[in-house]
Amino acid sequence: MTEDDVYGPVDFVLMEFEGDRLTGRGAVEILDLVDRGIVRIYDIAVIGKTDDGEVYAVDLAQEAVAAELGDFGELVGARSGLLGDEDVAEAANAMEPGRLAVLIVFENTWAVPFIRAVRASGGELIASARIPAQDVMDAMDALDQLSPI
Q1: Helix, strand or coil, per DSSP, at residue 53
Q2: Higher model confidence: residue 87 or residue 74?
Q3: CA–centroid distance for 52 within its chain
Q4: Which of 5, 33, 104, 112 has its Cα between 20 and 30 A from that of 48?
Q5: Of the candidates 86, 96, 111, which has an alpha carbon nearest to the alpha carbon of residue 11?
Q6: Contact partners, residue 110, CB within 8 Å, separation at least 6
């Protein structure tokens, strides 16, 4: 691997929405992160689950569908191959019936200069973890509830 072949960590997020409440407001924010070079989108899948539990894929390439999903339609070309059928099936298993979800695979490009510098100094990442945002919010709410001593 050359110095130019450094990548940032790649994450995925699965966001579930009630029924047809996917407005695309989240897409506006992630597109802003892309424009600022903070993340790179590798894959996106929109998955639906009927009230009966039937899973279906939403084709972002269809103009009518893309229009209904707001700015998520702008991500139609995000296909790297990192996201496979098994990943989509696993995401669908996590979903509640009657919901729509967006699965996004993205690279944290903000980390590339840091990783490059660490590697140039002989360092190597040996462990990494992520604390889900909801866990952080729950912990902060719990701290707010504590009485000062």
Answers
A1: coil
A2: 87
A3: 26
A4: 33
A5: 111
A6: 8, 37, 38, 39
- pLDDT for 5 beyond 60: yes
For 61-73, what is each residue's pLDDT tens digit?
665 555 566 667 6
Each residue of 5-34: b (16+ CB within 10 Å) or e?
ebebeeeeebebeeeeebebebbeebbebb
- The DSSP letter of residue 74 is G
Residue given tokens 């450094």 in the structure block = 6
Following CA atoms 31, 83, 58, 26 in sequence, which dihedral angle do they give, to the nearest 10 degrees?
A: -30
CA atoms within 13 A on the CB side of 122: 0
Nearest Cα to Cα of residue 17 among 99, 79, 73: 99
N- to C-terminal Cα separation, the chain: 54
Instruction: Identify the pLDDT of residue 148.
Output: 67
**pTM of the model as a whole:** 0.81
Q: Cβ distance 97 to 48 under 8 Å? A: no
